[in-house]
Design goal:
This protein has a single domain, classed as Spore Coat Polysaccharide Biosynthesis Protein SpsA, Chain A (Alpha-Beta Complex), CATH 3.90.550.10. Helices cover 30% and strands 19% of the residues.
Length: 263
């Protein structure tokens, strides 16, 4: 417990990277401030035999009393880890990637920052500012050294559950997300961060170490999101075009940020 609230890790994976997860959970349990719970979300269609399809070391790890495995009937990619926010209690939620060993003080140092900068998403590493330039979502470094919705949200972060925008779970938003933004929670959640003026701050830790260089970001969703099409646009750009049809005010806000960072 930290400030009488649970510290929870929420993570997901898929068949090409599932071999990393057992060791990832093992290292997570070695953090200087240990998580109260670790939740792993997997899609049944990707593992039709459920636990029998999992590596032996992961089968052993899910027997740990602090580790909870959840099976979801459909594959919602990285959004599976967001299911934890349907829990109504207050907790600190740490998103852990399935291919990274983090520093052993990551949870502790992030929670200490959270004590100083309350009600704030805290990225583990130093992300920049986010803005919009015609058809592209772009980033500029360094980020502001104070909490602000203009700082870029990173998928490797801690989100206090009580500031998570629950409107993301309305049927209308879920349908839109799954149709137009299914593999990029950073782009989608950013819109609600801007809309609800949720502060983002950086811990400035270095990136964690890859657990397996053969199945890290080179084959993950990150590579799919950033691949350019024939028009020079990537998945994020295509998402934004549709998103701004629903959140036209966000387009103006992100353009205004561009003006500020250009000065």
């Amino acid at each position: 417990m930290w400030n009488n609230k649970k510290v929870i890790i929420s993570m997901t994976s898929y068949p090409k990277r599932i071999t990393n997860v057992g060791i990832c959970i093992f290292y997570a349990l070695m953090q200087s401030v240990k998580p109260d719970e670790i939740h792993l979300w997997l899609a049944e269609p990707e593992f039709p035999n459920r636990e029998k399809d999992l590596p032996k070391d992961l089968q052993a790890m899910i027997e740990h009393p602090q580790v909870f495995l959840h099976w979801l009937p459909t594959n919602t990619y990285c959004f599976k880890r967001h299911e934890i926010f349907k829990n109504e209690e207050d907790f600190y939620c740490f998103f852990f990637d399935d291919d990274v060993r983090y520093r052993n003080d990551l949870i502790e140092s992030t929670l200490k920052l959270s004590d100083s900068y309350k009600d704030c998403i805290i990225n583990y590493t130093n992300y920049g500012l986010v803005y919009y330039d015609r058809k592209h979502q772009l980033y500029k470094t360094p980020a502001y050294n104070y909490p602000t919705p203009d700082n870029r949200f990173c998928g490797q972060c801690m989100i206090p559950s009580w500031i998570y925008p629950q409107e993301m779970f309305t049927k209308e938003n879920l349908d839109f997300r799954d149709k137009y933004c299914c593999i990029c929670d950073e782009t989608w959640l950013t819109q609600f961060i801007i809309k609800n003026q949720i502060n983002v701050f950086n811990n400035n830790l270095p990136w964690g170490n890859e657990l397996n260089s053969y199945n890290c970001n080179k084959i993950g969703i990150v590579s799919q999101v950033n691949t350019l099409d024939k028009d020079g646009l990537n998945f994020r750009d295509r998402c934004l075009m549709k998103i701004f049809e629903v959140f036209p005010e966000n387009k103006s806000i992100m353009k205004n940020i561009l003006i500020m960072v250009s000065k």
